[in-house]
Amino acid sequence: MRRVVYNGERLGLRDVTEADASALHAVYGDAAATQHMPFAPRSLSEVAGLVAQALEAAAAEPRRLYVLAVIDTARRDVIGVARLHIEADHPHSAEIGFGLHPDQWGRGVGTDLVRLLLSFGFKQLGLHRVWGARSPSNLPAQLAMLTAGMVEEGRIRHHVHTPNGWRDSIVHSALQDEWTER
Ligand SMILES: CC(C)(COP(=O)(O)OP(=O)(O)OC[C@H]1O[C@@H](n2cnc3c(N)ncnc32)[C@H](O)[C@@H]1OP(=O)(O)O)[C@@H](O)C(=O)NCCC(=O)NCCS
Hints:
InterPro entries: Acyl_CoA_acyltransferase (IPR016181), GNAT_dom (IPR000182), Ribosomal_N-acetyltransferase (IPR051908). By secondary structure, the chain is α+β, with helices and mostly antiparallel strands.
């Protein structure tokens, strides 16, 4: 397996390791960071289980799931987590998901992260389509994806089941032939 290391200007992406569980728990275990996700905040042991699944998926051939630690390249610490999942029936297309530690929010890091994920998907993986689904009320995710060049495609009704019931999603996407790296 070739491990992912993909660096931008102020952020980097790399495969998660077991040592990242507590840094990922700062996102997946946080009430504010999971507010728009379809699950309640995870425990540390649940996050360790997710990391174990990610390591297994990283070894699969062909590889379809990338669970990546988001690195602040200046400080060299893990500030968030990103996922890119290639669809089995549509291998030109992948869904992304992302979350940052709350102490990073509101400084343009999320927008940079979406840009880096698009660059990784198109340039490194040779994908044609990258898409993401957000909660209709997730304004920071909406603005980060729009600013990074992911257009709004429409609404999937009752896309996910959350602890509060069914929730619609708004889909954003970028296509390789209309994308320009910024
Ligand atoms: C979504 C997320 C990654 C955005 O990260 P971020 O670093 O705050 O994003 P940015 O600083 O690049 O901000 C993106 C836009 O949202 C705006 N914004 C950020 N926080 C905001 C807030 N609380 N209220 C309103 N607007 C906000 C910014 O001003 C910016 O708008 P602009 O492009 O017009 O300047 C972050 O909020 C997060 O990790 N949320 C929890 C996980 C999540 O919801 N993931 C998305 C799943 S689809």
